[in-house]
């Protein structure tokens, strides 16, 4: 996702989705990138997967996407609620489990 407007459209789009808010200079964002890409390729069907560069609009990501640090993974429920992934375990299986529990 390239713009704040596009990120807001995802949040209010009515479809379940997962969005990582990252900063390209952040070593933790860089370290998680491969696992998140694997997760994105394995999750399909009814859940859309996005990434959004959040360091360019911190007010938006703080207010709309529960983000105060990078990376932050959120499940966006169909009603637009963003649920933050709180664990430090950043693996494909951990992301899948979080999505399943959050959307159950």
Automatic annotation (TrEMBL):
<dbReference type="Pfam" id="PF00085">
    <property type="entry name" value="Thioredoxin"/>
</dbReference>
<dbReference type="InterPro" id="IPR013766">
    <property type="entry name" value="Thioredoxin_domain"/>
</dbReference>
<protein>
    <recommendedName>
        <fullName>Thioredoxin domain-containing protein</fullName>
    </recommendedName>
</protein>
<feature type="domain" description="Thioredoxin">
    <location>
        <begin position="1"/>
        <end position="104"/>
    </location>
</feature>
<dbReference type="InterPro" id="IPR036249">
    <property type="entry name" value="Thioredoxin-like_sf"/>
</dbReference>
